[in-house]
Automatic annotation (TrEMBL):
Annotated pathway: Amino-acid biosynthesis; L-arginine biosynthesis; L-arginine from L-ornithine and carbamoyl phosphate: step 3/3
Family recorded in the similarity comment: Belongs to the lyase 1 family. Argininosuccinate lyase subfamily.
Catalytic function, reaction form: 2-(N(omega)-L-arginino)succinate = fumarate + L-arginine
Pfam family, one: ASL_C2
GO biological process: L-arginine biosynthetic process via ornithine
Species, as recorded: Agromyces flavus
Identification of the protein by name: Argininosuccinate lyase
Keyword Signal in annotation: no
Domain Fumarate lyase N-terminal: 21-303
């Protein structure tokens, strides 16, 4: 079985059916640059321990560099007979430097500690990319908020008009939740930044290789403390899949609002042409496909996470081939987000807000009723009574098709002697927003302070 990593103890080669099932090069070839980086680090450890002469190490490293150049140029790809990226690259190394030297590299390592290391290297790189993309999105939300510092919109609970809020406050709310995703990526790295190399198949190596040097070489913080855990655990992969799913969910919540705001009924936003799509039959259509794809792809990200968790459940220690099923879902989550995030950010950067329309609707639905109740409380009316009085006022206004500020003095007094005409001072959306000046509230000064606080949080992640 030429070019295979195993076979001597077998009477014959694997069946074609097994080969087809077992093959992983169509997805793990992505790990080739990391596999070669691992091989370079491992070769240095072998040389340091006396298993490669200095001249041999030089030839080995030159050979590995040559393979890397060929992988990057696309000249070297996995052959049909290769089972996985590790076997394919060993066969290519042997072709490059000869069987005598090429056959020495595998000493003291297993595909089990290799693959566990490579997936971490891959995820670490992509965590950095996704982190940068998230920062761009947070910046885009903050820039839109900055351009609409005084605009007021209807704040909602249960999707019903609740209380007026600043548009900037609402946009920054999404920025804050995304900043926690960024924090999750940074926190994930503390657990991911470990090198399983040296764990071997499961029990460690007899060759006295310096695992700490290999970890350093690969840019990982430390070697793993337990070789069984190192080769058999994939919680780090599952956690990454969770973070990507959470990002997807956070995007989907923005997306759902953009979709609603973009309807004729809301009329809160217009999407830029470059970030909208048309219909093949209805010439007038301009659709929010980026937002819809974000909403849809969040389901896919959740699916990748739950599939991976199902794979890991009840898996005995140590390595089992089931673990090969970790890669396709998490690779898919990475690829999905890395394509989605820039499009989503472009949509946010270019969306136009119709602040007049938002302001017009902000007081509708008696959204200033809480302001009336709290105005009464400030006049020492117990809140329970204030709630009752305000409820009666809302009912009166609704029955007479009036807004709260349109109820006349006599009607106010008839509802309650406490409702003096001064109450109209709080019956403007500007007054309402300005009065919510407690910590985290929507008053302009508080929202103003959030810009620096959010930027500061993001910068420290
Ligand atoms: N392709 C495997 C994986 O992704 C690594 C190889 C380990 N294979 C083995 N038979 N021990 O997990």
């Amino acid at each position: 079985n030429e070019g295979s990593l195993w076979g001597a103890r077998f009477a014959g080669g694997p069946s074609p059916e097994l080969q087809r099932l077992s093959k992983s090069t169509h997805f793990d070839w992505q790990l080739a640059p990391y596999d070669l980086a691992g091989s370079r680090a491992h070769a240095r450890a072998l040389a340091a321990a006396g298993y490669l002469e200095p001249g041999e190490l030089d030839r080995m490293l030159t050979g590995l560099d040559a393979l890397e150049a060929r992988v990057l140029s696309g000249d070297l790809v996995a052959a049909d007979s290769d089972e996985d990226v590790h076997g394919a690259l060993e066969a290519a190394l042997i072709a490059e430097v000869g069987p005598e030297l090429g056959g020495k590299l595998r000493a003291g390592r297993s595909r089990n500690d290799q693959i566990a290391t490579l997936v971490r290297l891959y995820l670490k790189d992509h965590a950095a990319t996704i982190g940068r993309q998230l920062v761009h999105l947070i910046d885009a939300l903050a820039a839109q908020a900055d351009q609409h510092r005084t605009a007021i919109m209807p704040g909602r609970t249960h999707l019903q008009h609740a209380q007026p809020v600043l548009l900037a406050h609402h946009l920054l709310a999404h920025g804050w939740s995304l900043s926690r995703d960024l924090e999750r990526l940074a926190d994930w790295l503390k657990r991911a930044d470990v090198s399983p190399y040296g764990g071997g198949a499961l029990a460690g190596s007899t060759l006295g290789l310096d695992a700490a040097a290999v970890a350093r070489d690969l840019g990982l913080a430390a070697p793993a403390e337990n070789s069984i855990d190192a080769t058999a655990s994939r919680d780090v992969v599952a956690e990454f899949a969770f973070v990507t799913a959470m990002i997807g969910i956070d995007l989907s919540r923005i997306a759902e609002e953009v979709i609603l705001w973009n309807t004729r009924e809301f009329g809160f936003v217009t999407l830029d042409d470059a970030y909208s799509t048309g219909s093949s039959i209805m010439p007038q259509k301009k659709n929010p496909d980026i937002a819809e794809l974000a909403r849809g792809k969040s389901g896919r990200l959740i699916g990748n996470l739950t599939g991976l968790l199902a794979t890991l459940k009840a898996l005995p220690l140590a390595y089992n081939r089931d673990l090969q099923e970790d890669k396709e879902p998490v690779f898919d989550s990475v690829e999905t987000l890395e394509v989605l995030l820039p499009a989503f950010t472009g949509m946010i950067e270019t969306v136009t807000f119709h602040t007049d329309r938002m302001a017009e609707l902000a007081p509708a639905g008696f959204s200033l009723a809480t302001d009336v109740a709290e105005w009464l409380v400030k006049r020492r009316v117990p809140f329970r009574d204030a709630h009752e009085i305000t409820g009666a006022l809302v009912r009166y206004a609704e029955e007479h098709s009036l807004e709260l500020h349109e109820v006349d003095d006599a009607a106010l007094a008839a509802i309650s002697p406490q409702l003096t005409p001064q109450v109209r001072e709080v019956l403007t959306i500007e007054g309402s927003v300005a009065s919510r000046d407690g910590v985290g509230g929507t008053a302009p000064a508080g929202v103003e302070a959030q810009f620096a606080a959010l930027a500061d949080r993001v910068r420290h992640l």
